[in-house]
């Protein structure tokens, strides 16, 4: 189907602004532009409470923000379901503050606690620093779930865009680690994830420019994330290319029809169908990358989060819960 009319108007406004070529901007400019863009998330969804904490990272403490839902499961039993969330931003931009509205929407619609992780960014902390932080955060939260008000057996992992890169790579690492099976994630939710930096898929060619995120931006970010020239085929950078995707958590993937990253998200889900880990796949018609974070100008974002929320609740249901 064609671009959603509101999406097209939004892209037309962006194009009229004559933004500089992505390859020519500094990291500081990249961060500033993303922060301004994320202000279009609209009013944050209602949550019961937020709390900022730190937890042990791979080399230094990590800041996290915990979101508790209004209708928290803790009102009826000791622990609730939860999501560890990694924000997007190309691994060089974004923070728990810029992506606050996304974390709130996941918390509200999923009726679960969300723990948003402020992992280290490149180029100050190049590959594999962000991945090391993601893996450490998942392992720590899984091992101390009760301290976060979460049932360890109902803890999922979520990432959007480049946060999806970290989520998928960290889940793969933990699936093949000595981590006790009962502490491994119960769900993997990937929203418009970057999963293969090594090739130009059909969607990357078709939507290489003019659809919010472009190939120049992806190349710019990868150059800063991996300044030493790490092989983009490394599955820690391109999780789709992992040789073995067995033992991955039940996985939900959301993509957008006009997103250059669409095909790699679909390819990843297709691979998981052969391992028994594929749970649900949705390609949102007429949408672009990051549409879910632009609710003030793309109202469909709420519809998408309602669908994600229903999927989260179904995947992380408490078998001991009663009506």
Descriptive account of the structure:
The protein is an alpha/beta fold and 323 residues long. It has a single domain (5-72, 79-315), classed as Alpha/Beta hydrolase fold, catalytic domain (Rossmann fold). It is 33% helix and 17% strand. The protein has nine helices and eight strands. It has helices at 5-16, 27-38, 100-110, 129-143, 162-175, 202-206, 215-225, 262-273, 300-315; strands at residues 49-55, 62-68, 80-86, 113-118, 150-160, 187-191, 251-256, 278-284. It has an eight-stranded mixed sheet with strand order 1-2-4-3-5-6-7-8, with helices on both faces. α3 links the parallel β3 and β4. α3 (100-110) packs across α9 and α4 crosses α5. The radius of gyration is 18 Å and the shape is globular.
For the biggest sheet, the summary is: 8 strands, mixed
Poorly predicted segments: none
Give the full name of the CATH homologous superfamily: Alpha/Beta hydrolase fold, catalytic domain
Identify the overall geometry. Answer: globular
Order of helices and strands: HHEEEHEHEHEHHEHEH
Q: For the terminal residues, how far apart are their CA atoms?
A: 40 Å
Q: Write down the CATH class.
A: Alpha Beta
The tally of domains stands at 1
Radius of gyration: 18 Å
Q: What percentage of amino acids are in beta strands? A: 15-25%
CATH fold descriptor: Rossmann fold
From the coordinates shown, what is the CATH architecture? 3-Layer(aba) Sandwich
Number of helices: 9
Structural class determined from secondary elements: alpha/beta
